[in-house]
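Minutes, structural biology subgroup

Action item carried over from last meeting: produce the structure token record for ATP-dependent dethiobiotin synthetase BioD (Acinetobacter pittii). EB confirmed the sequence was re-checked against the source entry. Recorded below for completeness.
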Amino acid sequence: MSGQIYFVSGIDTEIGKTYATGFLAKLWTEQGKKVITQKLIQTGNADISEDIEKHREIMGQGWFQEDHDKLTMPEIFSYPASPHLATRLDNREIDFQKIENATKTLAERFEIVLLEGAGGLMVPLTTSLLTIDYVAQHQFPVILVTSGRLGSINHTLLSLEALKSRGLKLHALVYNLKDESKDPLISQDTSNFLKDYLAIHFPEAKWIELAKMN
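Output recorded by EB:
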């Protein structure tokens, strides 16, 4: 029986997707689940995914055999940019079949696979395929990472509208307390607004607060 695959995305770059992915993997592992993380496409690295390394650090976990076998990091490109540009600069295309096979293998071995994307939902993987298109092709439920920084309400609602327009399921909205606004009034109002919005428009989705970790 295959495990559950969740796609982890964010409302913006540097919103805390990698932190959230590692945090949830650690949390669910401690709850007795067999969990692994995977990076859809890693850019800005040569041979090893720095995001997978960060996941393992947060989890307090050494490398899985699947990490050594590169199942968790099937595609790595050297230039730190959107995949559609990084692939062009490396002069090779994304092997989507390789990624899909790796994800399938992980889902056969683990109860939960947290598949972290690159950037937000509308990031282009190729000139004709957006990240959200890939998610829609596979109908992955989405875990969306947001925060209390100024502007995050707008970015969050745009991301949620994109999910709704493609009929995708929002599994959870993760509120990253590590990325709070320096203005506590803005942070608190953002949290309250998004909770209320979620309850009305995505009542089945979970609200998860991502605590600051040392």
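Discussion: The mean pLDDT is 95.
Next step: EB to file the record with the rest of the batch.
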